[in-house]
């Protein structure tokens, strides 16, 4: 019984057992946490920390796994994957599912499903389903509906909290749909978000002409351009430094890596200062050459040029190193044979070196394209962007899809529209997946795995 | 048919280039306003002088190459062309220009960090006879001071035992550097030689000592006024978070990579696909959900929470790379061990783990460097100056409410990039070999 059942059956049994174990452990952790809360109540503000759930869960999981491993020995192969799978489930898959759900809701910074602490209202008296407050309940809780019908509320005492729903409220009386589980002292309004179907996607596509399409086009140009401006100079430098007769070759090689070795978060900010219209050293240098100050970061088109310029500075060492690495795998006797056959330098380059570089370069080029397609750090750190007429402040001249999504979801001027941001994220997900599929097709990565 | 397509492709490419050159580029130039702001020095037709200077340099190189070849030909009684020497000279000239391009930002930031005046946004040019200095193309080195750096260390109390550890760690690092240089000099490339072992041990000692220092540095040691006085604390926080994330990345990916490379259980291929495709969701856009999760776990504003938030995004790549690495190692040793009755776990810990040390170092370093420059997630999860990271602190200098503090930003940039710069140059070998092992398959 050491062999796993073959094919899909074995896979499903293993997945089912592992998933069952994880679910049982998670539920047990949650139950133990609630039991602890119920047995030894603590004030709401300083309750038990939530990570206890994780610790309890792990404590339950380990014996389950040991027992399972004894009973179903072939499952132990999967235990090697379990740490990775657990973390992926908790911190990647779960957020993805939740984000996908938010994409179909009107979740924003205001409607976040949390109690609004500014609507804190003291409860004077409780009678069955009725709560009595001092003053007008509707005004104190700032309900959307005139009689607060259907409004979700949070009720608390010092050690307990619960969520309830209003049937109706009039004057100083709030009638709940069910009697509260305990006698509350405070009540808050909950800012609920609602399921709105495809409305977020409709909003994106209805304004596609002014926002989505220009941003997408620039995104593709940026990703492709970033690859080109990095790869070509890097390739040229690599070819030049591959000359074994060149003195100081090692020095150049080491010294030129500098821009790769400086953290991006620092170097991009240095560059934004360097590119300042009036004070930036780059414009001053160009001024000495006879140029007028170039609006690097204040003109929509020049902003894009600046983004590519920074890309050039950041990425040429990577390509130089990649070229040198790939060239070192070409044996010397190929060149000797070419020399004996009477090929000159240029013929050797176009006939031998470049064709031999193509094979290792294709995956690197595609990988770099996929990376730059979502190169958030560079665009975001370049700071405030020049405006473009008719576009929202979250998608300006240099914004790519991912910065647009981020600014929509997290910046105040985007209204912290997490729902809309989530919808854009899903679009990015599909685009990235398409790019990666093309990537795999070209490089044969998936066939190799099989 | 294929030929037609190829010509069509080239024609399209040519059209694109023509469009960029003759439509887009003039359009760009037309967007430049022809006026000079105060303090801006513009030299009419300056490019003519620059080009002239370059041509003179080229001429000198050709002259030198011709003379040198002439002399050596006379001496050795042979006839050699001087063109290879010209090519070398021109390569050096080109490399010099590339070096200027690569180091220009570094030079400017270094100069600004030693300049107590807020030089970037000053209208009055420095008084100097040199045109380049007056135009502020070459930084003005007339007033150097440590003031900016002193501000970053203001009120920082180092306990005696920490100072001792720091000195020992620095000595270890120095020993590593000296040994590396010496071994390169005598051509010792074997890492098992006695010197190589000593180098490895002192590097390990340095890592352990720095780890202890990072852990035991506490916020109480920073008594200075102003946020910038906490800079060392930010560096410590960043190193701590990056280090833990890197270790976690190795722990999570090692066993998974082993299973994918060596086991043949049903479902291996679909699981691998899941690992790859999950990674394509733009990680930090799940931030709202991750935020909800971490806040429900009560881990907001803790480093644990931040590391957990990072942990989702570090698994797939490391697993993939480590799997590729194991597949390039021969199985024969493991098979012999399995026949001798070793368990899979013993094979992994006794045989493969020692072999994989360079790959673990690579995965750790990649994660370490990547986390060091991250600031978006940190910005969301960490509140309070005491738990900021370097990226957040630097961002605060340039976008803070007190306008840009350029000198401070420069000094902090220099100090803040040092750990990564040292790591990068110290472990250059691992980076290069790791990248080639992961991507360039033969």
Explain briefly what this protein structure is.
In chain A, 59% of the residues lie in helices and 9% in strands. By secondary structure, chain A is of the alpha+beta class.
Task: Walk me through what this model shows.
The complex is a heterodimer of chains A (450) and B (442). Chain A has helices at 7-39, 51-71, 76-79, 82-102, 137-141, 199-206, 212-241, 249-255, 258-261, 264-274, 281-288, 300-328, 332-340, 345-373, 376-381, 401-410, 418-443, 445-449, and strands at residues 115-127, 130-133, 152-156, 161-170, 173-176, 186-190. Chain A is an alpha+beta fold and 450 residues long. Chain A has 3 domains: 7-80, no CATH class; 115-190, Elongation Factor Tu (Ef-tu), domain 3; 203-449, MetI-like fold. Chain A has a 6-stranded antiparallel barrel. In chain A, helix 7 (212-241) runs antiparallel to helix 14 (345-373). The mean pLDDT of chain A is 87. Chain B has 3 domains: 46-113, no CATH class; 157-221; 245-439, MetI-like fold. In chain B, helix 6 (160-186) runs antiparallel to helix 7 (194-216). Chain B is globular. The two termini of chain B are 32 Å apart. Residues 438-442 of chain B have low confidence and may be disordered. Classes of the chains: A alpha+beta (450), B mainly alpha (442). Chains A and B meet through helix 1, helix 2, helix 3, helix 4 and helix 8 of A and helix 2, helix 3, helix 8, helix 9 and helix 10 of B. Chain A: It is found in: Cell membrane. Chain A: The chain crosses the membrane at residues 12-36, 48-68, 80-104, 216-239, 251-275, 302-320, 361-382, 417-440. Chain A: This is Maltose/maltodextrin transport system permease protein.
């Amino acid at each position: 019984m050491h062999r796993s059942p073959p094919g899909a059956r074995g896979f499903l049994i293993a997945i089912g057992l592992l998933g069952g174990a994880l679910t049982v452990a998670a539920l047990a952790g949650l139950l133990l946490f609630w039991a602890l809360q119920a047995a030894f109540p603590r004030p709401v503000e300083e309750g038990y920390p939530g990570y206890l759930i994780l610790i309890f869960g792990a404590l339950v999981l380990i014996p389950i796994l040991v027992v399972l491993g004894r009973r179903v020995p072939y499952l132990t192969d999967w235990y090697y994957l379990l740490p990775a799978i657990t973390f992926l489930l908790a911190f990647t898959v779960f957020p993805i599912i939740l984000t996908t759900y938010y994409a179909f809701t009107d979740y924003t910074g205001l409607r976040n499903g949390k109690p609004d602490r500014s609507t804190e209202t003291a409860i004077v008296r409780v009678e069955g389903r009725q709560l009595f407050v001092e003053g007008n309940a509707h005004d104190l809780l700032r309900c959307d509906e005139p009689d607060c019908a259907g409004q979700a509320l949070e009720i608390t005492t010092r050690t307990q909290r619960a969520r309830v729903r209003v049937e109706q409220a009039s004057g100083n009386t709030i009638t709940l749909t069910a009697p509260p589980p305990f006698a509350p002292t405070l009540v808050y309004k909950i800012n609920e978000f609602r399921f709105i179907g495809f409305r977020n996607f409709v909003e994106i596509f209805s304004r596609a002409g002014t926002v989505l399409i220009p941003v997408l086009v620039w995104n593709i140009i940026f990703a492709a351009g970033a690859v080109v401006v990095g790869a070509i100079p890097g390739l040229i430098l690599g070819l030049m430094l591959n000359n074994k007769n060149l003195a100081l070759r090692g020095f150049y090689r080491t010294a030129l890596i500098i821009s790769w070795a400086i953290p991006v978060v620092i170097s991009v900010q240095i560059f934004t200062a360097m590119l300042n219209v009036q004070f930036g050293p780059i414009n001053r240098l160009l001024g000495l050459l006879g140029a007028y100050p170039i609006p690097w970061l204040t003109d929509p088109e020049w902003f894009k040029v600046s983004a590519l310029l920074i890309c050039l500075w950041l990425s040429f060492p990577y390509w130089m190193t990649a070229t040198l690495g790939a060239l070192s795998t070409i044996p010397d006797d190929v060149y000797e044979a070419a020399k004996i056959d009477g090929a000159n330098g240029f013929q050797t380059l176009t006939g031998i070196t470049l064709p031999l570089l193509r094979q290792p370069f294709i995956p690197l080029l595609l990988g770099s394209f996929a990376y730059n397609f979502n190169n958030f750090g560079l665009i975001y750190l370049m700071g405030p962007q020049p405006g473009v007429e008719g576009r929202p402040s979250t998608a300006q001249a240099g914004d790519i899809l991912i910065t647009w999504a981020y600014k929509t979801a997290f910046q105040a001027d985007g209204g912290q529209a997490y729902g809309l941001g989530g919808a854009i994220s899903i679009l990015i997900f599909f685009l990235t997946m398409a790019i990666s599929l093309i990537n795999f097709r070209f490089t044969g990565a998936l066939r190799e795995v099989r | 048919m294929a030929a037609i397509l190829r010509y069509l492709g080239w024609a399209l490419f040519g059209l694109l280039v023509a469009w960029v050159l003759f439509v887009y580029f003039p359009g760009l130039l037309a967007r430049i306003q022809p006026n000079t702001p105060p303090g801006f020095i513009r030299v009419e037709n300056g490019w003519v002088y620059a080009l002239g200077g370059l041509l003179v340099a080229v001429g000198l190189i050709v002259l030198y190459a011709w003379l040198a070849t002439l002399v050596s030909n006379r001496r050795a009684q042979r006839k050699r062309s001087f063109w290879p020497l010209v090519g070398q000279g021109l390569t050096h000239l080109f490399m010099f220009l590339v070096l200027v391009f690569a180091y220009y930002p570094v030079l400017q930031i270094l100069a600004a960090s030693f300049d107590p005046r807020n030089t970037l946004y000053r209208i009055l040019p420095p008084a100097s006879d040199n045109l380049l200095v007056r135009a502020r193309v070459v930084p003005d080195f007339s007033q150097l001071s440590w003031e900016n750096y002193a501000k970053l260390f203001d009120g920082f109390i180092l306990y005696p035992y920490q100072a001792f550890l720091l000195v020992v760690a620095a000595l270890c690092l120095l020993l590593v550097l000296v040994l590396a240089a010496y071994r390169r000099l005598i051509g010792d490339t074997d890492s098992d030689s006695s010197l190589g072992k000593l180098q490895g041990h002192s590097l390990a000692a340095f890592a352990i000592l720095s780890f202890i220092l990072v852990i035991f540095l506490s916020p109480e040691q920073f008594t200075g006024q102003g946020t910038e006085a906490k800079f060392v604390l930010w560096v410590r926080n960043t190193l701590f978070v990056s280090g833990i994330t890197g270790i976690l990345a190795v722990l999570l990916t090692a066993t998974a990579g082993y299973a994918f490379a060596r086991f043949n259980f049903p479902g291996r291929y679909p699981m691998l696909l899941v690992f790859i495709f999950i990674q394509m969701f733009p990680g930090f856009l799940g931030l709202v959900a991750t935020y909800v999760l971490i806040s429900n776990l009560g881990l907001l504003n803790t480093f644990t929470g931040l590391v957990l938030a990072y942990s989702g995004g570090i698994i797939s790549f490391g697993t993939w790379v480590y799997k590729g690495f194991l597949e390039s190692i021969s199985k024969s040793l493991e098979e012999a061990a399995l026949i001798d009755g070793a368990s899979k776990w013993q094979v992994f810990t006794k045989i493969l783990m020692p072999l994989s040390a360079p790959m673990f170092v690579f995965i750790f370093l990649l994660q370490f460097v990547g986390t060091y420059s991250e600031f978006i997630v940190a910005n969301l999860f960490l509140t309070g100056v005491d738990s900021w990271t370097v990226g957040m602190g630097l961002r605060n200098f340039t976008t803070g409410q007190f306008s840009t503090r350029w000198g401070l930003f420069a000094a902090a940039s220099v100090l803040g990039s040092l750990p990564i710069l040292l790591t990068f140059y110290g472990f250059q070998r691992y980076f290069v070999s790791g990248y080639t092992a992961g991507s360039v398959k033969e």
